Amino acid sequence: KVALLDLIMPYTDGWAVLEAIKAENIKIKVIVTSNLSQDEDIVKAKELGALEYLIKSNSSLASIVEKVKKYL
Questions:
Q1: Among 13, 16, 45, 62, which is most buried by a count of CB atoms within 10 Å?
Q2: In angstroms, rounded to a whole number, what is the distance separating the alpha carbons of residues 55 and 38?
């Protein structure tokens, strides 16, 4: 299982989702896709269990698909 997760969402944010996945020890591979590009955001996402952090404005759809295939 692979989840593509944005950090900015309407009712919750990706940080809360990553924290819940980690706290509940849910076995899912997470690829964060976000326009937040600060180094501290990338580090925090990986500390919370994200395998990849893709900056949407710098990532083509093809590269995102390749990352998903890599983890399937």
A1: 45
A2: 10
